[in-house]
Amino acid sequence: MKTKDLVIVGMFTALIAVLGLLPPISIPGIPVPFTFQNLGFILAGCLLGSRLGGLSVLIFTILVAIGLPVLSGGRGGFALFFGPTGGYILSFTLIAFIIGLFVERMKSPKVWQVFLINALIGAFLCNLMGGTFMAFNLKQDLFTALKSVMVFIPGDCIKALIAAILAVKLRNNPSIQKSLRIN
């Protein structure tokens, strides 16, 4: 891996951590807060592709595991992987990787195409995985848990749209294309 790639991966890991400085929004009755960090995971996949985007999020996940307070609300630590938010935390690397797989194969992506990928994977699949893990962890009925996390879908779709707009705009910028090696 080139030094330039390492720097870009590190910058995206830092961006995700910075998004954690925005306070989480608690939703009554749901032990998982609404955060802005998944915007960073989605954007990492969109701009860096599967390999580098997934790596940046994996490094972020490792930072969480070793206890750095990089999650929204200043949280961190291995115990979080076994709590109600564990499924979300574990899904983030996979989400960035899958989004990257789809977007990096597009020749000249349109905002609506990238939004569709981001919404299906970054909003729906992430909440499906997170909600399933939450149900298991809290010993809830799966349908009840999945129904409760549906409250995140509108906000996550807005983040998916923001990421799509930014990704398409940045991917169409020649200097960004050269920096990120986007074809």
What topology emerges from the helices and strands here?
Blueprint: H1 3-19, E1 25-27, E2 30-34, H2 37-65, H3 86-104, H4 111-138, H5 142-149, H6 153-171, H7 174-180
Antiparallel strand pairs: 1-2
Report on this model:
- There is one protein chain.
- This protein has helices at residues 3-19, 37-65, 86-104, 111-138, 142-149, 153-171, 174-180; strands at residues 25-27, 30-34.
- The chain has seven helices and two strands; from the N terminus they run H-E-E-H-H-H-H-H-H.
- The chain has a single domain (3-180), classed as Arp2/3 complex 21 kDa subunit ARPC3.
- With 183 residues, it is mostly helical.
- A two-stranded antiparallel ribbon has the order 1-2.
- The longest helix is centred in the N-terminal third of the chain and has 29 residues, at 37-65.
Structure, briefly:
With 183 residues, the protein is mainly alpha-helical. 69% of the residues lie in helices and 4% in strands.
Structural class: mainly alpha
Q: Which ranges are low-confidence, i.e. pLDDT below 50, for 5 or more consecutive residues?
A: none
**What is the β-strand count?**
2
Q: Number of helical runs?
A: 7
Mean pLDDT over the residues? 92
